[in-house]
Amino acid sequence: MIQSKIAELVRDAIRKAQEGNELPEFEVPDIPIERPKLEGHGDFATPACLQMAKLARMAPVRIAGVINGHMSQADFVGHSEAVSPGYINFRLADLWLAQQVGVILEAGDRFGNVDLGHNSRIQVEYVSANPTGPLHVGSARNAVIGDALANVLAAAGYDVQREYYVNDGGTQMGLFAESLYARYAQALGHDVPLPESGYHGTYLAEMGGRAAREYGSCLLNMDHSEALKAIGDIGLSYTMETIKNDMAAMGITFDQWFSERSLYQGGGFEQVLNLLRSGGFLAERDGAVWFTATNLGADKDEVVIRSGGAPGYFASDIAYHYDKFVERGFERVIDVWGADHQGHVPRMKAMMRAMGLDPERLSIVLYQLVTLKRGGEIVRLSKRTGEIITLREVVEDVGADAVRFFLLSRSAESQMDFDLDLAKEQSSENPVYYVQYAHARICSILRLGADRGLDTVEGDLSLLTHPMELNLIRHMLMLPEIVELAASTLAPHHLSSYAQELASRFHVFYRDCRVVSSDPADRELSLARLRLMRAARLVLARTLHLMGMNAPEQM
């Protein structure tokens, strides 16, 4: 990226100043290049002179002046200046900016990619809701964050695997089976009560009716424990079918659906227990087996084997992450969890240390809850059932693209309001409409150019000198920075703000610059601007696709 080239210019200027005895000899530190906070201060700036004041025993602003005086000419720098209290500001050259349109077009769908990961294997595990019912709207935020993050990491040069962890073992699945059995029996006319601590949603009655139609009364004639196992498997298949359909409606696919039950088959779990026991990380208390997480810096220990002999939920976490890191060899793993799991994070890090793994290889992205609003009022219950609002209902109401964009519009750790009415509004007030309309308008301009017989491949880019043309190009060139930022901080919400700003720059350009002119004298400028439009469409579409959204050609 251009920042590294500017940093090398500064580094070279420091060496020249040292050779001329204008700066004392010292080891040149890393040269940070950043975006100025205020417009009008150039495209990039370096605060390196502030950091070198002690090394040079000079005032930072004087250091900046000396270094800037030795700055070599470069085709990408139009102007550089030393400013108080010790920054050097850089403005990119107009001609170089215009020529970058050709660079973007040549890169095509690869534009925005960076090689941060060097093809290292990374797994992103997300959604992973218990398969005991339909996904609710909270799972939508998990899905959107996880999927966009996987997209960004792939663009940043990682070999990404997307995984859904199916919690098909444990206590909740047992309660689910008992509840579904009761609904199944009721559908066949038998008075079987629901367990008090079971699942009471109306969706379970629908599942029970479906099981009665498909399997008849055969399960009623089985041994009860066998019947519970059978109806549990049937309910699991029904729920996973719904979850997969919900994910498909969101445009989300997974490379693997990993079963929790598989962790306890084939001796893998016993192998993990032996590893922890040999390391001295297990203790027996109160008839249970505990993982001594407090000895590794966590705030409390965790049950691994309950007093009744069944594995605790943390046992599955240990075995699952051993499988990820040791058995499957992922170099990094990212789990996307709800913020209510925050207290669990230190124990996960302790688990990594106990298994002899670097805790930094495991990252856990925590996201806050979503509040749905309509007409300024909080929406708490489903219109259809009077119960939880499902992901599918929200997608059907406002569309998958709106769900994705709105749920990516804030950082994961921020609580957010999702305005359902705004998400459907066709105006510039709706950021989804505003961004997608920009792409559709660009496509319309390109169609007009084609209708006028204007070639979008040819065109002298040096004619792109208007301030709004150059501002648009400047922002287009930021996409690789945004990808690197989102990937390195695991924060894909940067994409949504970038998309809005890029759309804004386009709309201002369109207001001030006519692209397709009927005047023969403007033909060459029209050709150049059509090339700019092709590049702008490419960058905006790439940004939308990284968020998992469509880039419509008409609206």
Keywords:
flat, Isoleucyl-tRNA Synthetase, Domain 1, Gyrase A, domain 2, 555 residues, alpha/beta, 20 helices, five-stranded parallel beta sheet
Topology:
Elements lengths: L1 H18 L24 E3 L1 H4 L1 H4 L3 H10 L7 E7 L3 E6 L1 H14 L13 E5 L11 H19 L3 E8 L4 H17 L14 H14 L8 H26 L6 E4 L8 H11 L3 E4 L2 E4 L10 E4 L7 H15 L4 E7 L6 H10 L7 E6 L2 E5 L2 E2 L12 H8 L1 H8 L8 E4 H5 L6 H21 L15 H10 L2 H11 L4 H19 L10 H24 L9
Helix pairs in contact: 1-4, 5-17, 5-20, 6-18, 7-8, 7-9, 13-14, 16-19, 16-20, 17-19, 17-20, 19-20
Question: What does the model show?
Answer:
With 555 residues, the protein is an alpha/beta fold. Among the domains are: 2-92, Gyrase A, domain 2; 97-108 and 428-546, Isoleucyl-tRNA Synthetase, Domain 1, CATH 1.10.730; 171-249, no CATH class. It is 48% helix and 12% strand. It has 20 helices and 14 strands. The protein has a 5-stranded parallel sheet, sandwiched between helices. A 3-stranded antiparallel sheet has the order 1-3-2. Strand 2 (77-83) and strand 3 (87-92) form a beta hairpin. Helix 5 (94-107) packs across helix 20, helix 13 (391-398) packs across helix 14 and helix 16 crosses helix 19 (494-512).
